[in-house]
Amino acid sequence: PFSKVLFYNIKADTEHLYANFEYANQDLFINKGFGGNEFRIITIANALALNVPHDLIKAFQYHDHLCPGVTAGYLIVKYVQAHYPLNNIYDKYFVLSMPPWCKDDAIMTLLNATPGKSGYGVYYLNDTETAQLKSEAANLAVIIFRHNSVTNDWEGQVIGFDWGTSKQENNWGENTSWNWWESRLKMDIWFLDYLDKPEQFVKVIKQINSFANFENISQPSDLVHPGINPLQIFDLIQ
């Protein structure tokens, strides 16, 4: 049984939720107005009200809420589908996430590349590796490998995601106790105008034409074996 009922207009505009973030933060997040589900409800409700595409809904359903990280994954998928498509019904992707974050739930869902299908791996960068990334790899997000079912060859693209403009436009990092959800919600809405423009954020860092020149690496899953460092193999760190 419910012991509390809260009526609150959570529309993401200056007349409602944006009118006073401090009050909204107190009423909703500090007081847990929606029982701890505040960010889930606010982001999903606003996205649905704005008629976002069905495949984006599919992605944030799996992730449990909409956040800029999920949208980044969606944009990466749109870039891959437009510029790096599969050419045969039996072709497939293998995704190596470096490093993993919210984007991966969107990529797994929309590219149908999952660990259960032997199509997904992750590599967690430590602080030293992050500091050693080459300048061109500073925005490293993922490596998308594509398998040609006819020739049995693999090729790949090292992909980065540029957050610069989106953070500048959406109050990212302001020193308030509510900035963590304010900036993410604003960025959620802001990104909706760019869902068909992934090229503004997604960049190819490096092309991998084959595994022929890499010792003991014949397929992408070899890259997640113990002791293997794909950052070194693909010359992404100094």
From TrEMBL:
SUPFAM superfamilies: FwdE-like. InterPro entries: FmdEsu_dom (IPR003814). Coiled coil: none annotated. It comes from the Bacteria. Residues 63-121 form the Formylmethanofuran dehydrogenase subunit E domain. This is Metal-binding domain-containing protein. It comes from Candidatus Magnetoglobus multicellularis str. Araruama.
